[in-house]
C-alpha cells in the first residue's frame, strides 16, 4: 500500500492498540504502519498486564482514506485489537483555537470604576474630541479584522463562512504568535460585493487594519480597491500580497544560490488568479527578464481575444516572444517555474526540459503542481507550500510582520514599497553565508523574521509619497473571471 500523496501532520492519528505482550509485538506494529505508507511519530505504552500491552501509536498519514487503510492493516494483524482511533487535528480544534483575555485586573470596585463606568466615560469623551486618540487609548492600535466570505477557502472552494471559521481562527492565532497582533475572525454570510464593502467599512473604527482572506477572484480585487479608497487603515489581501512577498523573497535567495540575475531569467507562472497576478506584478516591478502567464485559456499573449481586464494587462506586459503553446512547452528552457494553480500538472520529465540550474516553486496545496521528489531529480532548487518539505514558502513569513510594522507606524494604507521592503527583509534573514539549495527562506519559527519585516515596513511607511499597493488586481467595478484555483 503506497499513497500517492505524502504523509502529513495534518492527517495525524493516534491509534490505541492492545497487542499480545511478546518481544516482537511493538516491532510488528511499527513495521505494519510503515509498510502501509504512514510515518510513526510516537509510540507510548499506556497499560499492560502479564499477557497484553496497550499502546498509543501516533502516525502521519496522507489523507483520511489512507488513515482508514492504516487502521485496517493493524486490525488484520494476529493478536492485535484496535480499541480507539483519534484524529489529532479534530482534537486540536475542539472548542476553537483562540480566546479573549483581559489585559487589566478587575479585582475590586476601584479597578472596575477605572476600567468601566464611571471612569471610562472620560476616555470616551477624549476620543470624541480627538478621534485619532482611539489608536492610543483602545485596542485599535493592535487589532486586525480577518475578513472572509468563505468563497475561496484554501483549496476547498466556496464552502461558506461557518466552514471557513477554523481557517480564520488559525490565521488569528498566527497573527498573535508571530507578530503580537490581536486579530479576530470576521466571517460574513454574504458574497455580495457591495454588502461586504459596507460591512467592513462599518466595523473599521474598531480595527487598525483589515486582512482580507479567502475571498474569490474577481470579487476580492474590487473589494480591496474600494476599501482602500474608503478607509484610513491598511487593507491587505494576504492571498495576493502575502504570497507575492514570500515568493519574491524566496526567488531572491534562489537566484543567489544558482548565480543568476532576475533581469536575465524567464519565469513561467501557472495560475493567473489572485496570487499569480500579484506575484507577476511584483516580479515585473523588480525588473524580471520575462514572464509567461499560463491559465485555462493557455499562455496569455496579445493575440488572445475576449480577455478580462487583468489578463489583458498581463498579455500586454508579459510573454515578449508571444508564446502560444501549452504549459509543458512554456517551461521548456525556462529558468523558473512558479505554480499557484492545481496539482499534478507536470512531471519530472517536464522539469528536465528547463534551463540548467532551474528553480521550481510548486505551491499548490496540499498537492503541488509537480511531485517535489521528481522535480528535485532535475531542478537545482525546489520549494513547495508544504511544511513537511524543504523550502516551505508560507505566508506566515510575511503577514504578521507586515501588520506589526503598519500598526506601529499608524499606517493608513499598504504600499508596494512596503511589499518590496518586506521581501528583502525575509530574504536577508537567511543570510548570504547560510543559503543553499535546501535553505532559501527562513523557518516560519525563526524569531528574527517578524521583527525584521516589521522594521522594514516601518521604514517604508515613513515615505508618505509611496503609492498604494496595486500589484494584484483590477480597478473597482471591472468584471473579471479567473481560471486556475488559488492555493
TrEMBL record:
Keywords: Metal-binding, Oxidoreductase
Xref: Gene3D superfamilies: Malic enzyme, N-terminal domain, NAD(P)-binding Rossmann-like Domain
Transmembrane segment boundaries: none
GO MF assignments: malic enzyme activity; metal ion binding; NAD binding; oxidoreductase activity, acting on the CH-OH group of donors, NAD or NADP as acceptor
Region of interest called Disordered, as start-end residue ranges on this chain: 466-487
Domain ACT: 14-90
One Pfam family this sequence matches: Malic_M
Annotated InterPro entries: ACT_dom (IPR002912), Aminoacid_DH-like_N_sf (IPR046346), Malate_Decarboxylase (IPR051674), Malic_N_dom (IPR012301), Malic_N_dom_sf (IPR037062), Malic_NAD-bd (IPR012302), Malic_NAD-bd_bact_type (IPR045213), Malic_OxRdtase (IPR001891)
Family of this protein: Belongs to the malic enzymes family.
Name of the protein described by the UniProt record: Malate dehydrogenase (Oxaloacetate-decarboxylating)
Higher taxonomy: Bacteria, Bacillati, Actinomycetota, Actinomycetes, Micromonosporales
Amino acid at each position: 500500500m503506497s499513497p500517492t500523496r505524502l504523509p502529513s501532520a495534518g492527517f495525524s492519528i493516534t491509534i490505541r492498540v492492545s497487542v499480545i505482550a511478546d518481544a516482537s509485538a511493538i516491532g510488528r506494529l511499527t513495521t505494519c504502519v510503515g509498510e502501509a505508507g504512514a510515518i510513526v511519530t510516537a509510540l507510548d505504552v499506556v497499560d499492560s498486564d502479564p499477557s497484553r500491552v496497550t499502546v498509543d501509536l501516533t502516525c502521519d498519514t496522507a489523507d483520511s482514506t489512507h488513515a482508514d487503510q492504516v487502521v485496517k492493516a493493524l486490525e488484520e494483524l494476529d493478536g492485535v485489537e484496535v480499541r480507539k482511533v483519534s484524529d489529532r487535528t479534530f482534537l486540536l480544534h475542539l472548542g476553537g483555537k483562540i480566546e479573549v483575555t483581559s489585559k487589566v485586573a478587575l479585582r475590586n470596585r476601584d479597578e472596575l470604576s477605572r476600567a468601566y463606568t464611571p471612569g471610562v466615560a472620560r476616555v470616551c469623551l477624549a476620543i470624541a474630541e480627538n478621534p485619532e486618540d482611539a489608536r492610543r487609548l483602545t485596542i485599535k492600535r493592535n487589532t486586525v479584522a480577518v475578513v472572509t466570505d468563505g468563497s475561496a477557502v484554501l483549496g476547498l472552494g466556496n464552502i461558506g463562512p461557518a466552514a471557513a471559521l477554523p481557517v480564520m481562527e488559525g490565521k488569528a492565532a498566527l497573527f498573535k504568535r508571530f507578530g503580537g497582533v490581536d486579530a479576530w475572525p470576521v466571517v460574513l454570510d454574504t458574497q455580495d460585493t457591495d454588502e461586504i464593502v459596507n460591512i467592513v467599512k462599518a466595523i473599521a473604527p474598531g480595527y487598525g487594519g483589515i486582512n482580507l482572506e479567502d475571498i474569490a477572484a474577481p470579487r476580492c480585487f474590487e473589494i480591496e480597491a474600494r476599501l482602500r479608497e474608503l478607509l484610513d487603515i491598511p487593507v491587505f489581501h494576504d492571498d495576493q500580497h502575502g504570497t507575492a512577498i514570500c515568493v519574491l523573497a524566496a526567488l531572491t535567495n534562489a537566484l543567489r544560490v544558482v548565480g543568476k540575475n532576475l533581469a536575465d531569467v524567464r519565469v513561467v507562472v501557472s495560475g493567473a488568479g489572485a496570487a499569480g497576478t500579484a506575484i507577476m506584478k511584483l516580479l515585473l516591478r523588480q525588473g524580471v527578464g520575462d514572464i509567461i502567464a499560463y491559465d485555462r485559456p493557455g499562455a496569455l499573449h496579445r493575440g488572445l481575444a475576449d480577455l478580462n481586464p487583468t489578463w489583458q494587462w498581463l498579455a500586454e506586459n508579459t510573454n515578449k516572444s508571444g508564446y502560444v503553446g501549452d504549459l509543458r512547452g512554456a517551461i521548456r528552457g525556462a529558468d523558473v517555474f512558479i505554480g499557484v494553480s492545481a496539482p499534478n500538472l507536470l512531471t519530472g520529465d517536464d522539469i528536465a526540459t528547463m534551463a540548467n540550474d532551474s528553480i521550481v516553486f510548486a505551491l499548490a496545496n496540499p498537492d503541488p503542481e509537480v511531485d517535489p521528489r521528481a522535480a528535485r531529480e532535475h531542478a537545482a532548487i525546489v520549494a513547495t507550500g508544504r511544511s513537511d518539505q524543504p523550502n516551505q514558502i508560507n505566508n506566515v513569513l510575511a503577514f504578521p510582520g507586515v501588520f506589526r510594522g503598519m500598526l506601529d507606524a499608524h499606517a493608513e494604507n499598504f504600499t508596494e514599497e512596503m511589499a518590496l521592503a518586506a521581501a528583502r527583509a525575509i530574504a536577508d534573514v537567511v543570510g548570504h553565508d547560510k543559503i543553499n539549495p535546501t535553505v532559501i527562506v527562513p523557518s516560519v519559527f525563526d524569531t528574527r523574521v517578524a521583527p525584521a519585516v516589521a522594521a522594514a515596513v516601518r521604514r517604508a511607511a515613513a515615505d508618505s509619497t509611496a503609492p498604494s499597493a496595486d500589484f494584484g488586481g483590477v480597478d473597482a467595478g471591472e468584471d473579471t473571471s479567473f481560471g486556475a484555483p488559488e492555493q
